[in-house]
Write a structure and sequence with these properties.
Structural class: alpha/beta
Bound molecules: iron/sulfur cluster
Number of strands: 12
Helix content: 25-40%
CATH class of the largest domain: Alpha Beta
Strand content: 15-25%
Largest sheet: 9 strands, mixed
Amino acid sequence: MVYLENEYWRNLKPYSQISKEDWENWKWQLANRLTSFEDLKKFFSPDEKLKISFLKTADIYHFGTTPYYFSLIKKFSYEDPIFRQIFPSLEELDSNLQKNSYLDPFREEELSPVKGLTHRYPDRVLFRATNFCSVYCRHCMRKRIFLEEERARTKEEYDLMFEYIRENKSIKEVLISGGDPLTLPNKKLEYIIKNLYEIPHVDIIRIGSRELVSNPYRFFDEDLLEIFDKYDKIWLVTHFNHPNEITNITKKVVKNILSTGTPVLNQTVLMKGINDDKFTIEELMRDLLRVKIKPYYLFYADPVEGTLHFRTDLKKGIEIIEHLRGRVSGLATPIYAVDLENGLGKVPVFPNYIVEEGKDYIIFRNYEGKLIKQYK
Ligand code: SF4
């Protein structure tokens, strides 16, 4: 967890004159996103290799970050977990590294009865509200949106999506995602939430957003907190991947979110060179609990085109879960899961703790590797 001093951004020369009022305003963060190579050059002098990587890759998969998220970088190199999550890399375009990857491995577009809506499980739908994000994560499972024009869907598109949900009573949960739905203005966001809230068979409105990671000042906004408070079917699922992303600001705003009665859960993606290390994940899970976010999933990286270089061995995740078991509280242990291709669902993957089973006994292995025989 990182402690940010009051007005810490003033230490970064290009932000030395930025007032507290501006920096802590989520709209200022969005309006002042860094989106080009020229923007980055104000902060450091990228070497030739970084320059080529950026220019060749960002031309295809665009680049974007909030000043806040960028300010969390400690070293301008791929070794830095935050830099590596946002700075374009030639690995994204390397056909050898990207072999057996797909633009839409979960057939979200195909399993879409109405534009923007994916119906892949009987009781849930995915509601893609916008394809805009304040930060473009190189590992995004919906990286195909990087290739599209940045825009929110229109009211007419939303209305068709509501109509489908109204007519399908088996739908109990709507996951509003994107892009990032919390980059939408409050009026548009409330229009979506209100319409979903008023559908009697919808029990849960799950918002999938990275704003808590990339633009936490979004949750200083009283009007947003009022929306969360008013429509009490909301759950927030966020996406922290590394302890360097959790700050004292995170802690402060999670408190604001929880005060509206909205639970906050986290999904992490296991990624090579970012968090594929048991001690890093342990620290991340501990920090999440410290700021009162419940670790939910640890995902094996999806086979998405342009992201496959982040994928680890499947066993790496099992090893990490084994490490967590017995060392951290069950509250801090996420479910390790693989999302199956073609929209066939998520499969949890666990270490095997049953060593042998006889007619009247089972031999278990505990977290220390001790074998314990128990009778049935
Ligand atoms: S914020 Fe979410 S949707 Fe947007 S690029 Fe990052 S992971 Fe993808």
